[in-house]
Amino acid sequence: MKIKMISIIIILLINPIKTLAKIPENNIKENHFIDTVFEDPLFSQSTMSLSLKNYWKYLKEEDTGSTRVHNAWGQGFGLDFQSGYFANIIGFDVAYYGAVKLGASDYFNSRGVLYNHGEGNNKNNAEGYSKFGQRNIKLQYQLADINFNTRWGWQTIKNVGVISNSTRLSPTTYSGWTGSVNYGALTLRGAYIENAMDRNSPDKKQFQTNSGEYINHIASSDLLWKSNNLNMQYGYGESDNYLRRSILFLNMKPIKELNIGTQVYTTHALDKYKIMSTNKRDFDNNAWHFAIDVKWQTDNWSTKWGLGYTNANKSNEVGFYPRAMSKNSRGTFTSMAFAGNDYMRDGEIVLSTMSDYTLTPELVVGFAGNIAQFNYRGNHVRTGEINAFSRWVPANSKLKNLTVWAMFGPGWSYQMKGKTPVLTNGKYHHANTLSSEIVIEYKFNLF
Hints:
Blueprint: H1 2-39, H2 41-44, E1 47-61, E2 68-82, E3 90-104, E4 115-116, E5 126-127, E6 129-143, E7 146-155, E8 163-164, E9 173-183, E10 186-197, E11 205-208, E12 214-215, E13 218-226, E14 230-239, E15 243-255, E16 258-269, H3 271-274, E17 286-297, E18 301-311, E19 330-331, E20 349-358, E21 363-376, E22 379-392, E23 402-414, E24 416-417, E25 420-421, E26 423-424, E27 427-428, E28 430-445
């Protein structure tokens, strides 16, 4: 009896000890599982950055006959998370943007810095904003030497075919999908987008015609070839039944210091465009822009010169080549004629330059300028501008992600209605402009 009782007591004592022994073992397994999860590239190869940007942009102009000041100043921030790929296949990205109003004048909205929360361009409408500008799922796959990539959701798109973005305190982002297939020097890309959030707005917007009719989608694709001495890109796209566009870029590098680029842009009007009233059209049926540029780069200085010409006929008015494929979208356009709404009028030829010199490893100074001319009813209408700029990037390791950019300069234009000169006794009226901007940006890599 005593032996049985002792045996029972031993068993009762051993069982709790075994149970207690399993607790650390379970903790070890749990910790090992957590470690394994976070060692997966989905998390271990993730990055997060915080960017701060202070942006002031100013324009004083007389294009409408009266003097107008377009002024906006804001402080922005962005938190950008980019995951790695689970099983080397699937991941996700999220970016949050915000902006705070620091100052504004009437007509501030043309600067694309602050949110216009109201009708018109009254300075009291100027506000900051916050938004999840990017949130998307991404996929990648490799088969032999062929690489596949695709992304679905809200994302920023830069020069994919005829679609591009623009950035102030945050970038323009789009809702839709993009994808690419790469094999060696050859890449095929595509995009299909249905909505947009502008660079200075948290609002989800549909694409629209100039007259306000909704456009279902914008589709685009391109084919790229990249090698050491020659890059080529052919892009094609359409804003649904509104505009159809193709682009051709060639970029040659015959020697290390020299870079030569050419661009051809063609835009064809479709049914939704053709039924608009004349005052809503930029051109009648077809618009073209041709450009060539040459850049010389050395260790301490560089200079780039470009020549552009536009053909955009419009009956009884001065036509214009539109960069965007619709309202609320941005179009791919890399010509040096890119400057506000100028230098792409029908029959206009423009000479552009941008040169800079590295004064110190931290400080670059330079100037940029455009001079253009087109003919209108016997007038040689001339426009242009010249700007001085500087860029400071400190070498101190604690400030290595800081950039300070400043630009200032005058310009000359003409009084206009739309893009057409206003004539008095057969002569056009000159108009002066003055523009400036300051951008201070700092980026933190959190992990």
